[in-house]
């Protein structure tokens, strides 16, 4: 019969390694019409990184994400970026872009301070305007300020910056130091049914709670969490590369390397923890890889809750789960005194 | 052999070797590269197109089998008035990430909505079970199909009517997923 089980697993994940240089560079240029161009070496792989980076640049400049044109992934024209790896893009490239945008904004503030007759420290960039803090009516459109910077003051608003997570070398004796820029945390709960006659596991629901710092784009964070749970589910129950004795892969096709389909995928409830990290751009950290870390552990804990067996080798296929259930039954029968 | 199909409302012909698949006909002879070559053996669904109202893997159908039939590809969905509701919803809700599976997923969804205008979640999951996606976990796609179904039912504008494939009886001979 089907037995219901629930399992929980938590994780932390390090973001922004510092054992080797891990920099991102960025150039931000504000155009004469108040739009901006961002140059970054990172690449978009579908996760929405360029959207998030546009939002970061736009927030720093007080304009809209649609006003940002990003040039990316071209090492001839763009500054160096360590890469779209290690869940580092929002955190490290985002910091570089925020710093470069702030430098360009400082030039706008110098021009606007003459136009508005106030000190640069009293200015803020918001709603397509450079305005006096606390007196938003006293303002100048960014397009006007930018045009003036280019044509009158002769100070085109261009910022460039790079960011490399601050390093604390590891002590050779104790191994202690600061190996990563920051850390993210998550807990996931899986609710499953295990058929104790076949060993088949069906995941019904996964609730995933993630601390990713400020969620700059919550919709994309959800997308990363849902995709991560899906990959974690495949890792937990289905996906395994098999080799023969000569090292040839036995299951090189998608008919025999089984990954989850819509019929395997449970409902995922994403919960984004309210959080702010001082070291990240506008408080953001990361979400990509961390989203799949706790899933397999939550599912195997749920299997234990449902049928009382510990699965210690993945994937927890029906064969493995059934073998564990049978072994447990055999053990229990042995223990009954004659 | 000569093959003539009605593709996205246009009658087109090509002379192809008999072993040519519908996918090769579309991509290499008609330059409609929206249907993707993924596994090319019918496992992944990235090449899904609609043939006479049914979603099929274009890599598993010979061009000759499609002769005389009506084929709709992803290129046939958008009109001058804008994107098809499925495309619009998928774009706005982040239902696709890398996007390689997208044309296939959208065509499977369209074939479903043409047949069942207001599908249940189980029906959507069934219809998309042959489309593999490595990025998204499918959830936003499933929600997106629900949303597009609502849009299609509430606003039956001329633009959306024009893209609707007329429902035809199921053809038993078609390779179906």
From TrEMBL, chain A:
Listed InterPro entries: AldOxase/xan_DH_MoCoBD2, AldOxase/xan_DH_Mopterin-bd_sf, N-heterocyclic_Hydroxylase
GO molecular function: oxidoreductase activity
Aldehyde oxidase/xanthine dehydrogenase second molybdopterin binding domain ranges (all copies): 2-266
Pfam families, per database record: MoCoBD_2
SUPFAM superfamilies (alphabetical): Molybdenum cofactor-binding domain
Protein name (database record): Aldehyde oxidase/xanthine dehydrogenase second molybdopterin binding domain-containing protein
Species per Swiss-Prot/TrEMBL record: Rhodoplanes roseus
Source species taxonomy: Bacteria, Pseudomonadati, Pseudomonadota, Alphaproteobacteria, Hyphomicrobiales
UniProtKB/TrEMBL annotation, chain B:
Pfam family, one: Fer2
Domain 2Fe-2S ferredoxin-type, residue spans: 1-77
The keyword Oxidoreductase appears for this protein: yes
Domain of life: Bacteria
Coiled coil regions in record: none
Keyword Iron-sulfur among UniProt keywords: yes
A single MF term (Gene Ontology): 2 iron, 2 sulfur cluster binding
Keyword vocabulary terms for this entry: 2Fe-2S, Iron, Iron-sulfur, Metal-binding, Oxidoreductase
CDD domains on file: fer2
Protein name per Swiss-Prot or TrEMBL: (2Fe-2S)-binding protein
Annotated organism of origin: Rhodoplanes roseus
Taxonomic classification: Bacteria, Pseudomonadati, Pseudomonadota, Alphaproteobacteria, Hyphomicrobiales
